[in-house]
Design a protein that fits this description.
- The chain has a domain of 78 residues: hypothetical protein PF0899 fold (2-Layer Sandwich).
- 27% of the residues lie in helices and 33% in strands.
- A three-stranded mixed sheet has the order 2-1-6, with helices on one face.
- β1, α2 and β2 form a beta-alpha-beta unit.
- It is elongated.
- The model has no long low-confidence stretch (mean pLDDT 95).
- It binds zinc ion (ZN).
- The site of zinc ion has 8 residues, from loops.
- Involved in the maturation of [NiFe] hydrogenases. Required for nickel insertion into the metal center of the hydrogenase.
Length: 113
């Protein structure tokens, strides 16, 4: 389950942020998750609860913002919306679509107490 390693990555980032601000506690973490990032939000939230226990971000609110998937269609020579990885282009039906957006998860912001 790769959500667990993602959650551990998030913990590292928020701990660094807390340290950079004099060891203050984290009250909220804002995550941006791309629709093409193949992240199970429910599983990730569960893993974060487990992983953040005992850390500076224990009990922190987790806000999740979904970013839409986009891809570059070679046939249309245009950026098109993509609902899932390896989907066909919604405009021309071609499968030559290169994912360009919404493929990543990142920590967008943390709120300090
Ligand atoms: Zn197309």
């Amino acid at each position: 389950m790769h959500e667990m390693s993602l959650a551990e990555g998030v913990r590292g980032i928020v701990e660094d942020a807390a340290r950079a601000h004099g060891g203050r506690r984290i009250s909220a973490v804002v995550l941006e998750i791309g629709e093409l990032a193949a992240v199970e939000v429910e599983a990730l939230t569960f893993c974060l609860e487990v992983v953040l226990r005992g850390s500076v971000a224990e009990g922190a609110r987790i806000d999740i913002e979904a970013t839409p998937g986009t891809g570059w269609c070679m046939q249309c020579a245009a950026t098109v919306p993509v609902a899932a990885l390896y989907d066909a282009c919604p405009q021309c039906g071609s499968y030559q679509v290169q994912p360009t957006g919404g493929t990543e998860m990142r920590v967008k912001a943390v709120e300090l107490e």
